[in-house]
Request: fold
Amino acid sequence: MKKGMNRNNGRAEDKRLMLGLLILLLVTVLAAAGIFISMLVKQNPIFAAISVLILSVFATAVVLFILVTLSSIVMVYSGKENAKIAGRVAKKSLDIMLNPVLGIGRLVGLDTERIQRAYAGINNRVVYSNKPDLSTEDILILLPHCIQNSKCRHRLNEDIRNCAGCGKCSVSDMVELAGRLGVKVKMVPGGTLARKTVAEVKPKAIVAVACERDLCSGIRDTSFIPVIGILNERPYGPCRDTKVDVKKVEDAVKFLCNRR
Ligand code: SF4
Reply:
């Protein structure tokens, strides 16, 4: 792992979890197709033949798709030269596979947040496998509303610089960081406004701070832009007085600007 990288940049355990779930999905698809085909064969032979053909084509397409996803993730983690294309394939296919993977994960009793963390980690790995060299003004830091101290009355949604800098929450540090590095920073209360903000600002890369669920949906929504996801810390539970490791945000911005 390169020095200064965000800790959640797709650790080996993220890869193992995702590969395990994809293989489980593959086996499930094959088993379901096999059972269904054997049931059909016992019915009307012509109807069965047509159904088997259609089902076989569908099952083969799904199996191939899962295999492509599996191999592209393995290639991203191999660190080889061609990892850039593999990264794009891994990202696109994982975006499509995420819901079935979450479904099969729930079925075997896995924690949904753990799978979402693995997805965000693999996404980060894909971003980190490239060598971006962006200007700081092309980078947008997106912060969740819950990072603001719940007793603070300053209105930050329009402009985060309305923060008075009292230091009772991470917002003042983020304002200082954004000013020092020259990046844009916005606070958004939810996914809809996050999408609107991205459409207005038109960044070339995003550093997003959020919980597992919001990171997942945000990364999928902005699949055309590289997003480095950083999990927030929730010492008081979800959605209240959350915190962010400012150093991780700074490292992510510096990586995107090739300033590490
Ligand atoms: S640091 Fe800024 S946002 Fe946080 S409590 Fe103080 S004034 Fe409010």
Q: What stands out?
A: The CA atoms of residues 84 and 129 lie 7 Å apart. Residues 136-256 form a domain with the Rossmann fold fold (CATH 3.40.50). The chain has a mean pLDDT of 89. Residues 148-149, 152, 154, 163-169, 171-172 surround iron/sulfur cluster (CB under 6 Å).
